[in-house]
Request: fold
Amino acid sequence: MPAPPETILVLGGTAEANLLVSRLSKAARAPRIILSLAGRTAAPILPPGCEIRIGGFGGADGLAAFLRETGVTWLVDATHPFAAGISRNAAKAADNAAVPRIALVRPAWEMRPGDHWIAVDCLGAARDALPKGARPFLALGRQHLAPFAHRPDLTPVVRMIDAPEPLAFAAEIVLGRPSADPHAEAALMSECAITHLVCRNSGGAASYAKVAAARTLGLPVVMIARPPAPPPPLAGSVDAVLALLGIDA
Ligand code: NAP
Reply:
C-alpha cells in the first residue's frame, strides 16, 4: 500500500474534477488538495474542501515549475476530454518535474438504438455536414462557434452559460447551463424547432441529456469525435483515480 499522497493538484473544469475533490476532502487522512481552473467561466461551480487557483500556468514549463514550487506529490488531470492542450502540458510537466500523474478520462458515448449520429472529426466537418437551411442546436461553447459563421443559410440556436459578447453570426441565444433532464432538453429543442443537434463526444452523465433528448425527438446528431487521449495511466472514473492514488474515500 503506497503512503497517502500529501499534495494533490487536480486540473479541473469538469463535474468529475469537482466530485474527485469532494471525495478526497472526506478521506480519513485528507491530503492537501488544490483545484486548478482555466478561468473560462465567470461563476464556476466550486467544490468545498480544497484550495482553488485560477488561470493558466504558462505552458508545460510553468506547470512543471508550479509542481516543484508547491510540492505537489500527485497530479490528476481531470480536464475535459476536448481540452487537449492542457492534457499535453500536464503529461510533459509531470515528466519534467518527476511527479506521478493520472489522467481521468471519462468513457466516450456510444450510439444506442434509435440514435441517428453523423460522425465527424472536427468543427469544420460538423458545419459542412448540416443540410442547407438547417436549424441546428450548437451545444459547443462560445470558443467553438466561429466555423459556423461561414454558413449564413443556417439559423442556429446556441446555449451559453455567461451572457456572450456579440456573436460573429446571427444565432438565437439561450442563456443557461445544460440540464441533466432529457425531458427539459427535449422541450427546449422542440420549442426552438431544432432540426439537428451538433455536439462533441464529451462522454459522462452531466451533459448526456441533450443526446438522449435528440433520440427521443428523432433528431440527427452531428457528433464530433474526441482528440487523442492523453498518455497513460488513464482512469475512467473517480473511483478508479482514488484506487490508483491508494486513497479510501
Ligand atoms: P486547452 O485548450 O486544453 O487549454 C488551453 C490553456 O488553458 C492551457 O494551455 C492552460 O494555459 C489553460 N488551462 C486549461 N485548463 C486549465 C486548468 N484546469 N487549470 C489551469 N489552466 C488551464 O483547454 P480548453 O479546451 O480551453 O478548456 C479550458 C478548461 O475548461 C479546462 O480546464 C477544461 O477542463 C474545461 N472545459 C473544457 C471544455 C472543452 O470542451 N474544451 C468543456 C468543459 C470544460 P497555460 O498553457 O497558460 O497553462
Notes: The mean pLDDT is 94. The chain has two domains: 7-106+228-245, 117-224. Helices lie at 15-25, 59-70, 84-97, 123-129, 182-191, 209-217, 238-245. DSSP finds seven helices and twelve strands in the chain.
